[in-house]
Amino acid sequence: DTWFVGGYHDTTAELLELADVDRVPASHTSHLQKANAILERARGKNAVERCQMFMLAQHCTTPTHALVHTHTRSTDLAQSRPELCHCTNAAVIVGRRELTKGWFLARRAFLPSYDPFNDDERGTNLEFVITPA
Predict the structure, then answer these.
(1) CB neighbour list of residue 91: distance below 8 Å, 6 or more residues apart
(2) Crossing angle between the packed helical segments 63-74 and 29-51, to the nearest 10 degrees
(3) What does the radius of gyration of the chain's CA atoms come to, in whole angstroms?
(4) Nearest-CA neighbor of 70 among 52, 88, 50, 42?
(5) Cβ atoms of residues 106 and 125 within 8 Å
(6) What is the helix, strand, coil percentage profile of the chain, to 5?
(7) Looking at residue 28, what DSSP letter applies?
(8) Residue 27 DSSP code
């Protein structure tokens, strides 16, 4: 069986909150723990990558240090743009994610997923995918 857990991601502070985890059935506890571990690693890696773009934060090379820095930065009133580095896209690559798997794009590409074999003749799904881009 599948169990969905909603969540909130504060991209400025790199915080993640999952909702109603106490309602997850005991049969899914190990899956939730694994998902939490994956999400925690992703938060840390994302924070380290973001810190490489921040002036005076290149020294934040560990996930723990980078997470502290991004959280502090998000609450600093002197930071007019605490989410800097989420706006550096230079390209949009529309396609299946296997197309770019393993590529390091350094936050320079927006990657909307699209499968041309799962669309109608009009391109309804494609239209939906590229509208925000």
Answers:
(1) 105, 108, 109, 110
(2) 70
(3) 18
(4) 50
(5) no
(6) 40, 10, 50
(7) G
(8) G
Report helix, strand or coil for 61.
coil
H-helix segments, the chain: 29-51, 63-74, 124-130
User: What's the pLDDT score for residue 83?
Assistant: 62
Averaged in consecutive runs of 10 residues, what is the pLDDT profile of the chain (133 residues)?
91 91 96 96 92 84 94 79 64 89 84 90 90 67
Q: What do you get for the CA distance between the two ends of the chain, in Å?
A: 35
* Dihedral sign (CA 81, 86, 89, 94): negative
Torsion of CA 64, 66, 72, 75, to 10 degrees: -120
Question: What pLDDT is stored for residue 64 in this prediction?
Answer: 95
